Amino acid sequence: MTIKVIRGNPTPEELAAALAVVRARAAAAASVPSGAPGSRDSWADPARIGAHRLPQPGPTTWSRTYWPG
């Protein structure tokens, strides 16, 4: 793996910190077994919708049931 600094003049400490983050991310990605489902985004989590109290019955209830908040 080659890392090239395009702009700026990082100190050795800054470069080492950036490289540590890149290596940690690469190691984490490599440790996930292939074929394993990825993490779900929070917006797609069904528990997000069910965690809120449903609105009271009324003429506009249908439009508020999907978008809690």
DSSP summary, beta strand count: 0
Order of SSEs, N→C?
HHH
Uncertain residue segments: none
Computed over alpha carbons, the radius of gyration is: 23 Å
- Share of helix, binned: 40-55%
Mean pLDDT rating:
76
Structural class: mainly alpha
Distance between the termini: 46 Å
What is the makeup of the main sheet? Answer: none
What count of helical segments does DSSP give? Answer: 3
Strand content: under 5%
- How would the global form be characterised? elongated
Describe it.
The chain has 69 residues and is an all-alpha fold. Helices cover 42% and strands 0% of the residues. The chain has three helices and no strands. The mean pLDDT is 76.
Keywords:
mainly alpha, 0% strand, elongated
Secondary structure layout:
Layout: H1 12-31, H2 46-50, H3 61-64
Can you summarize this structure?
The protein has 69 residues and is mainly α.
